[in-house]
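Re: your question from the hallway

Yes, I did run it. Sequences:
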Amino acid sequence: MTTTLNPRRTIDELKELRALTGDENGAQRVAFTPVWVRTRAWLREKLEALPVEVHTDAAGNLWATLRGESERALLIGGHMDSVPNGGWLDGCLNVLAGLEILRRLNDQYRGRPPVTVRLVDWADEEGARFGKSLFGSSACSGNLDMNEARTLRDKQGVCLPDALLEVGIEFERAKESGVELNHAAAYLELHIEQGPVLLDLDLPLGAVLGTFGVQRHAIVFKGQAAHSGSTPMNRRRDAFLAAGKMAQEIYRIAEKHGGVCTIGSCTTKPGIVTSVVEECRITLDQRHLDGAALAAMLADARAASERFAREGNVQVNWERLWEIAPMPFHPELIDACDVAIEETCGVSHRLPSGPLHDAAEVARAGVPTVMMFVQSLHGISHNKIEDTKEEHLELCVRAFDRLADKTIAWIGGAK
Amino acid sequence: MTTTLNPRRTIDELKELRALTGDENGAQRVAFTPVWVRTRAWLREKLEALPVEVHTDAAGNLWATLRGESERALLIGGHMDSVPNGGWLDGCLNVLAGLEILRRLNDQYRGRPPVTVRLVDWADEEGARFGKSLFGSSACSGNLDMNEARTLRDKQGVCLPDALLEVGIEFERAKESGVELNHAAAYLELHIEQGPVLLDLDLPLGAVLGTFGVQRHAIVFKGQAAHSGSTPMNRRRDAFLAAGKMAQEIYRIAEKHGGVCTIGSCTTKPGIVTSVVEECRITLDQRHLDGAALAAMLADARAASERFAREGNVQVNWERLWEIAPMPFHPELIDACDVAIEETCGVSHRLPSGPLHDAAEVARAGVPTVMMFVQSLHGISHNKIEDTKEEHLELCVRAFDRLADKTIAWIGGAK
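Structure:
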């Protein structure tokens, strides 16, 4: 069945891409920049060898379509864009593994597979330049907040619509890309894990259950500035004391509910060595695959912050920064992914995805979706040290290819 | 004895000064600025009514000398400079109460008191512009670190020697001001408390035991940045968690040893909502009147930080920012101060000073020293809301005047 699949070629192409678009600090394929445009040209060259129709949609997503017996389509996706100084696999592994599967299917079915197969390179998954991820896929899914996106600016003050125009994308028409999902029957995405779960289990591959829901808040404790030398300890209204208690409490909350909680930043006012902290602002990021559990984690954190505020005679205020609901993947496709992994390397593991992915947007649009993760050597992403063993890269291409076959069969059966 | 003492006049002069040198945000008498120069001119006008010799020493301290029968001198000091947006009493109450006492002594002794009496307005007590307090008094005491002070710059990049030159002070000669202490037999300073101790005890006045020793450090915890969504809680090396534990621990340490400990600032790197904190830097200010207890507080904090670092698999490094030994005041003058307060308002209280004062520098130079504190209404200083009841202001001038008389007698007895 996979006689012509060549995972080595995928690895060679990843290295070719790294040489073309990376430097000593890592990958530099930031969306809508000249390096990203060059990356896309390179990808189009690779696609020219196949009998696929290639076009860019209204949101700047690149589609390569191999027409099949049915117009019902299997979508395979990824993103060629990276963060600045990014890793060599994040996003492009997905696309290049998909490219290899297109080649295999084209060979096997002599240019006419049972269902239509489409490879998509989503535009600006990372959101590195404008601080807002999943532009292309959320435009396509219809979830993009146009009013918010219209006003986004990069560090140079360039707004998103102007940056898009430079690469030929008309911002106001971005949601017209939604037509691309008209005949979508399933969506598959391979990705490097970006965490240490598979590494700790010493497993090469995992089937992804869905993406975490996220509750993201700023918590501001407000006490009273007071001289560090003249203010008795029992008279203090110390905003940092309350924030410090939260640092430990979030570990208890995460353990109780089985999610993750992170305090990522802390700022203090007046923030001088000779004063008790008057105002302390921390950010809290909470994630869980289950919506009810996520809500319970948030409620616990709120209650704890109010308790600590009372104990320290300070005030506390919460400000919502962002939230997104959990996005569970399709149960039958998760099963198929599990089986494809087991058939390839003997053992599989199911895990949620902490980070968001384009797959979550496609799933949110109602397309049956699943992702496959491959082990990350250091459990680290968005960094030049991101890496995966070559034997694992080969395994992931093989397992993902098996998943494609199973999904084509599943689409056929569901027809 | 105090027939001509007029505390009401002191209050009126304080209000006159407030109108002349403050605005809606508070006092603006920052050292070496035009407002400070105007303040000094105003003070010189007040002194012109007295048969005193007035001059500025090599460090910019202003001295008014009323020659006595003996050249042995009672010094009464304060500082006319304020922080930006400061309180109306901090520093200038001391000087103006001293001025009133000079008037009373001049009247009583017809221009020739038993000992020489000198009023000093120290230059740049606050250190608001160059970040280093006690310039004038530490130059005079000989403790000023010339190499450090020479390189201090304000926010505009102006260095201290250049700023001094603009008001006629030659930096390199500042320590020549030490000659002013040649015949000093005692030093007295009145000050608003800057804390809530007397307020809580509902007492107008207190005798100060000395100034706290200070140990001031930056503590840097270093862990590992990791994605907030993909990193399991038990895999984290969270620098903020360790810092948060310190927030509570310093309260235990302060209680155990009877001093004060303050974490005044906290900064986080990378400091973004989607990453575990890699590096967290906090400042720790510890103060105690007893040197051994101060050393024990420091040792406890170090041990705790190392324990928290081990628990969280992070590293910790300490960096000394500043330190100063405790400076106990003179036991016999503390007794005299206590008695002067009791005679004036029936009850006294002894307390240490958390903040530093010029008095600590004079004491360090070997001059017998004591301070008197008057209650602060909100326990707050360095703020426009700083205030003291007028009846307490009257009491403090009266008690401080009594202390001056007792100290003159003490100097005579010790001769």
